[in-house]
């Protein structure tokens, strides 16, 4: 149970720091629910008004379902207004399905209208935003697949397509269109403005500008 949140949220947000994960793993896990029930017919534990936290990590959902409380071979599903927070990452979605085997998360599938997440890169002001109707993360390959009106924004640039694959370690993406009608890969690039020579950012030249309303500088004679 101790490793569940850290594995879930590292997979979903792609942003948890190694040091933060180590600290959070030592903290107690709290699972609160407005009500809990057991569905014997479907062998399912059901939590309503679920709030699950560990350190800086948190998951909130209208409902959480689990086939087992152990993680040797189980499936967890979070439904309804699912919000996931960890360090500098924030996710909002309609549902999240998590597949565990041998106490490790093997596959995470997130859906929404759309499902969104925002990440602040560690040590920088840079933010990455992404959205799609479906996100699928494969922990074996380390690749996240976005499908259904997928959009990725970073640094003023945007990539939109029906399908995007993102490599976490290499920060590399592959975009493909469906090939139907006008569906194309669309890239919007925003050039960064460069200041003119001798001009700092902001467009003002170094030093003060002298206008006709200003007094002459020392050493200058009025005409």
Helix-strand makeup class: mainly beta
Mean pLDDT: 75
CATH topology: lipopolysaccharide transport protein A fold
Multimeric organization: single chain
Q: Could you estimate the helical fraction of the residues in percent?
A: under 10%
- H/I helix tally: 2
End-to-end separation in angstroms reads 84 Å
In CATH's first tier, which class applies? Mainly Beta
- CATH architecture designation: Sandwich
**Secondary structure tally: strands:** 12
- What shape does the CA trace take? globular
Summarize the biggest pleated sheet: 12 strands, antiparallel
Query: By CATH's scheme, which homologous superfamily applies?
Result: Lipopolysaccharide (LPS) transport protein A like domain
Task: Offer a quick outline of the entry.
With 223 residues, this protein is mainly beta.
């Amino acid at each position: 149970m101790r490793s569940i949140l850290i594995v879930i949220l590292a997979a979903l947000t792609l942003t948890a720091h190694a040091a933060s994960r180590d600290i959070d793993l030592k903290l107690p896990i709290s699972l609160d629910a407005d009500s809990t029930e057991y569905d014997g017919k479907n062998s399912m534990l059901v939590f309503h008004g679920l709030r699950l936290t560990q350190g800086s990590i948190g998951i909130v959902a209208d409902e959480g379902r689990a086939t087992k409380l152990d993680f040797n071979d189980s499936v967890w599903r979070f439904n309804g207004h699912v919000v996931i927070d960890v360090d500098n990452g924030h996710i909002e979605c309609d549902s999240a399905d998590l597949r565990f085997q041998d106490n490790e998360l093997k596959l995470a599938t997130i859906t929404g209208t759309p499902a969104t997440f925002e990440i602040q890169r560690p040590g920088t002001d840079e933010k990455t935003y992404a959205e799609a109707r479906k996100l699928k993360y494969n922990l074996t390959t380390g690749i996240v697949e976005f499908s259904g009106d997928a959009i990725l924004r970073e640094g003023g640039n945007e990539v939109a397509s029906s399908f995007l694959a993102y490599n976490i370690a290499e920060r590399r993406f592959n975009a493909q269109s469906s090939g139907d009608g006008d569906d194309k890969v669309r890239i919007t690039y925003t050039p960064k403005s460069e200041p003119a020579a001798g001009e700092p950012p902001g467009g003002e030249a170094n030093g003060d500008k002298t206008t006709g309303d200003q007094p002459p500088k020392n050493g200058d004679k009025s005409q």
